[in-house]
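A reminder before we start the practical. When you read a complex entry, don't treat the lines as separate problems. The point of joint prediction is that each chain is placed relative to the others, so the output describes one connected object in space. Small molecules and nucleic acid strands, if listed, are placed in the same frame. In the example below there are four entries. Take a minute to note the order of the lines before looking further.
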Amino acid sequence: MSQNKEFKRGSGTKSKILNVARNLFSLYGYKGASVRKIAAEVGIRESAIYNHYKNKEEIFLEVAREIFSSPFSLSSDEIKELALRGKPFLHKFTMQYKMLTFDKKNENMFRLLMIELMQNKELREQFMSEFHDKNIKTLSEGFFTMMQSNLIRSSDPMMVAYEFISTLFYIRLQITILKFDSNSTNHLATQFEKHVDFFWESIKL
Amino acid sequence: MSQNKEFKRGSGTKSKILNVARNLFSLYGYKGASVRKIAAEVGIRESAIYNHYKNKEEIFLEVAREIFSSPFSLSSDEIKELALRGKPFLHKFTMQYKMLTFDKKNENMFRLLMIELMQNKELREQFMSEFHDKNIKTLSEGFFTMMQSNLIRSSDPMMVAYEFISTLFYIRLQITILKFDSNSTNHLATQFEKHVDFFWESIKL
DNA sequence: GTCTATATTTGGATAGAC
DNA sequence: GTCTATCCAAATATAGAC
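Here is the predicted structure of the whole assembly.
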């Protein structure tokens, strides 16, 4: 097929715009990243941008969609199997969370999320459903299984999940802030693992 | 009772500017709150603003200073006394945190903090020292005392403090988001108390 | 201290030539 | 598809009259 389609990460101008925009939005937010700066960094004139996107908003929306496209989710079967072994479930979940925290692209997207969270209602709603509810659901399924198997003390699985995820989020936020200013995250590097240890000691029977 | 102009410290136009600016900054962030809008809401022309403040930045800095002026801090004696009783220490600390979460002015300042956190290096540093370190210090003092008194299981007090504060922060963030969109916070209203209960069960001996 | 008027810059967006 | 040229709006800020 000689018709050359655009590759996802291809070298077409459009995807170049997207890459630059993603970077600038995650650094300066929606208002701070001007179409001018984007065009300049892409290496074209502002007007040329509008051959690829209707307007600035459209570029942002395409970038924003990636924020919640995080790859990780465990199948219901995986959850059950791991949960039956107790702590390994928490460990696996946490290590996936840690990976996202240190992954360059996800790091940028997380920063963008934090920047725009209080400015964009849709992002707030997605934060609640995609970031929070989804994780609570996965975790509480695991905790429920553990309670049934008498691996952990009995209580409300959702509540336990809430307690668990909140600390992961806080660690991620701190690491993101420190890395943004190129500060050392050494003292937080093992915080995820420590959290799993502490938490498991807190709930195990 | 005829003088009804001034509610708080200082008065006249300057403090009115500050009040309006605080409100607009906390709604729209630094970039989103224009001098124009501030002047309009105050009821004067833009140019008149500059008789009171050198520039926009100066207004923002005065507002931003309030973010970390949260009233609550326990004296070292209070901490020790409360910590010797165990759970009441956690309860008191948490209730103060909850009060700040639902206090209108602190709610606005917290939103502003979240908006500007990723855009302002100084705010990030203050967040780390004032929001995080200060709380960790207070809490770990309490946990240390509890460990010495064999009220709770022995481990790193700073680590325990980290686990405790992270959930408080997450609850606060969620409530702030929900309230911003005028959504119900009913299901989170007692989350603070539940956290204390859960956590105490996790560490008590 | 506030106003009007204005300077200056920045940013989003379009028209039309190539 | 990209460029030049241009428009328009909004924003920060200053000068000088009252």
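Discuss with your neighbour: Residues 1-10 of chain B have pLDDT under 50 and may be disordered. What might explain this?
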